Amino acid sequence: MKLIMAIIRINKMNETKMALSAAGLPSMTATGKVFGRGKGLWDAKVLEGVKKDLPEALVHLNKEPRLRPQRVVTLVVTDENLNKAIETIIETNQTPEPGDGKIFVIPLLESVRVRTGETGDITLD
Questions:
Q1: Predicted structure pTM score
Q2: φ/ψ of residue 29, rounded to 5
Q3: How far are the Cα atoms of 6, 65, 68, 115 from residue 102, in angstroms, in the given order?
Q4: Has domain 2-124 been given CATH number 3.10.150.10?
Q5: Alpha helix (H) ranges present in the chain?
Q6: 30, 72 in Cβ contact below 8 A?
């Protein structure tokens, strides 16, 4: 069993939800708007200058925000469905531009259905 945490563009949320459902993976959780950024195209020295409010550093940011709005999608899948879930997220969210997001895969020890007390992979159905 694996936990998949995907950080995606906010405008890809509905498309991702529909694609996962069509792939047979309808159960997921989405966190509201979150903010973040990857390594981006900014130089570390420029960012240090921005922290110090140096005007020459602020000019290099081109009015682009340092943190971008994104969504975090989490889903728990069986080991057998892991690749299908990852491929679906990539196919749905991949663009030619930087900022498509990241996918993290985290091993899970157990899952328990609260209503019945069932444990293991059966709780994912």
A1: 0.78
A2: -130, 140
A3: 6, 19, 14, 33
A4: no
A5: 13-22, 44-51, 55-59, 82-93
A6: yes
